[in-house]
Write a structure and sequence with these properties.
The protein is elongated, with a radius of gyration of 45 Å. A hairpin with a 2-residue loop joins β2 and β3. It has a three-stranded antiparallel β-sheet. By secondary structure, it is mainly alpha-helical. Helix content is 59%, strand content 5%. Among the domains are: 95 residues, no CATH class; 79 residues, Structural maintenance of chromosome 1. Chain E (Arc Repressor Mutant, subunit A, Orthogonal Bundle).
Length: 264
């Protein structure tokens, strides 16, 4: 006759223990020890529903109410996390994996095609392309022969110079603009005399290597600041003086380095 009462007390003790465990788990989630979704709230509600008809004492009802309050706080934390993740366009990897597993092959293909933006180019190898490639390689000289045709100019590495050296070269100080004008007038005279563009090396060439470097330096300013125009015809570089210099660097100008070997 005591078996039903004993069984009832056992169920009550088990229920109190499960509710206490739910409360401890909720406390840990509030303390940021676990993810809010670590707890299955639906399972917690079902546990409350299972034991609620057996409560008779005030303490048990208070424990039940306290558990409901804790579960509500977990739901609030879950809602906050979902809002944050949605605003950051975050997708839980496990949730995505499960969703993909449930999708049919047809739907999965449709989603793939909708999100697929390939950056690719299709090229087809045709007999005509193979013929052109074969003709190109048949007429191409061996690499050793092609290297022989290249000319090399071995120069020194860039270095520094002093103010005195620049002054001695005549490329520093108040006389610079006068030297530039003199070079321009010299170029104009050669151009008027020959009635054609002047060869660059013939114009900058001096009696010494130092003089050649100085004239090449001034010629670079003639070109940069609109006193003259440099153009290439075959292997020859030609200078053409302009009637009215702009004296300003042209927009979009590019650097065109010209090495000066000792033989010049």
């Amino acid at each position: 006759m005591n078996r039903p009462a004993t069984r009832s007390r056992a169920n009550l003790a088990k229920g109190r223990k499960e509710l206490q465990e739910l409360i401890h788990t909720c406390d840990a989630i509030e303390q940021r020890k676990f993810n809010p979704f670590f707890l299955d709230v639906k399972l917690g509600v079902e546990t409350l529903r299972e034991y609620f008809p057996h409560w008779r004492k005030l303490e048990d009802h208070c424990l039940d109410a306290h558990t409901i309050n804790k579960l509500s706080e977990v739901v609030r934390l879950q809602n906050t996390q979902l809002k944050f993740q949605s605003s950051a366009l975050y997708a839980d990897p496990e949730f995505v994996a499960k969703k993909i597993e449930r999708m049919s092959e047809k739907r999965l293909s449709e989603v793939f095609l909708q999100g697929w933006h390939p950056l690719a180019e299709l090229e087809q190898l045709t007999p005509e392309a193979l013929t052109l490639a074969l003709e190109y390689w048949n007429v191409l000289l061996p690499i050793q022969e092609r290297w022989k045709r290249r000319e090399y100019a071995v120069g020194k590495s860039p270095g520094t110079t002093s103010t005195e050296t620049l002054t001695d070269l005549g490329i520093r100080g108040e006389e610079f603009s006068k030297q530039l004008r003199a070079m321009w007038n010299s170029l104009r005279a050669m151009y008027d005399r020959e009635r054609k563009p002047v060869d660059y090396w013939r114009f900058v060439g001096g009696e010494s290597y130092q003089e050649t470097v100085r004239r090449a330096y001034l010629a670079s300013f003639l070109i940069t600041y609109g006193y003259a125009r440099l153009h290439v015809e075959g292997d020859q570089m030609l200078l053409t003086p302009l009637d009215e210099p702009t004296e300003k660097a042209s927009a979009g100008a590019v650097s065109f380095p010209i090495p000066i070997p000792k033989s010049k």
